[in-house]
Write a structure and sequence with these properties.
With about 220 residues, this protein is of the alpha+beta class. The protein contains nine helices and six strands.
Length: about 220
C-alpha cells in the first residue's frame, strides 16, 4: 500500500496528523507499506530569509493575541498525541523550501520519517530556524545523512525546481490545505484525522485488493 503524505514543515496540524497516522498504524499494522512525504508550502511567497514571528502573526492572524487563541486549541490537541508545542520559543517563520529539499534528499537512503520528525521537533519544541542551512545540516546529520554531501546539496539549488513543481502539482490536483494523505493514488484523507478514519480507508483498499483476480486476503 502506497501512502503519500503532503505536508509543510511549519504546520502544527501536520505534526499532529503525523502522530495520529502513526497511532493508526500501531493499532492496525499494514503490510508492504510505502510512505512518501511530499512538499506543500503554506507560505509560497515567503521571503527566502523568512519573516520575524511577530510580523508573521500580524499578517496571518491579525496579531499575537488572536494567534494565541488558535494556539490554545493546538496545545490541547497536541498533548493528546504527546506533543508539547512551544510556540513561544519560535522567533521567526522560515521559508520552507530547503527543509523540503532535505526531506527529499533523505528519501533515497530511507531516512525520511526520521528527518520529518526531527524537523517538527526542532521547530515546534526548540524554536529553531529550519530555514537556516546550518540548522538543516545538523538535523540531517543527526538523522544519519552524510554531512559533507548534505551540506553541499543544501548550499546549491539541486532539486529546488523539482520541489516547487511538486508543490504546484499538489495545488493543481485540488489540495489547498495540509496535511493530506493520499492512499494508493485513489483515496484522500484531508486534515489531521483520527486513527479510525485511516482504518476505514485501509479496509477499503484491502477489500479492493482482495477482489483483484489471483489475489487473496493472505497476500
Amino acid at each position: 500500500m502506497q501512502i503519500d503524505i503532503i505536508s509543510d514543515t511549519i504546520c502544527p496540524w501536520c505534526f499532529i496528523g503525523k502522530r495520529r497516522f502513526e497511532r493508526a498504524l500501531a493499532l492496525r499494522p499494514q503490510d508492504n507499506l510505502e510512505i512518501r512525504w511530499l512538499p506543500f508550502q503554506l507560505n509560497p511567497t515567503m521571503p527566502s530569509e523568512g519573516m520575524g514571528r511577530r510580523q508573521y502573526l500580524a499578517a496571518k492572524f491579525g496579531g499575537a493575541d488572536r494567534a494565541e487563541r488558535q494556539y490554545d486549541r493546538l496545545r490541547e490537541t497536541g498533548r493528546e498525541m504527546g506533543i508539547e508545542f512551544a510556540f513561544e520559543s519560535i522567533e521567526s517563520t522560515p521559508n520552507t523550501i530547503n527543509s523540503h529539499r532535505l526531506i527529499h534528499f533523505s528519501q533515497n537512503i530511507g531516512k525520511q520519517a526520521l528527518v520529518v520528525e526531527a524537523l517538527f521537533q526542532a521547530y515546534f519544541f526548540e524554536g529553531e530556524d529550519i530555514g537556516d542551512l546550518d540548522v538543516l545540516t545538523k538535523i540531517g546529520t543527526a538523522a544519519g545523512l552524510e554531512p559533507t554531501a548534505l551540506g553541499r546539496y543544501l548550499a546549491g539549488d539541486e532539486d529546488r525546481s523539482h520541489i516547487l513543481g511538486l508543490d504546484e502539482k499538489m495545488r493543481r490536483i485540488g489540495i489547498s490545505g495540509v496535511p493530506c494523505f493520499i492512499v494508493e493514488d485513489e483515496y484522500a484523507i484531508s486534515g489531521a484525522q483520527s486513527p479510525e478514519i485511516f482504518h476505514q480507508i485501509f479496509d477499503l483498499v484491502r477489500q479492493e485488493t482482495d477482489l483483484l483476480p489471483g489475489r487473496s486476503a493472505a497476500e
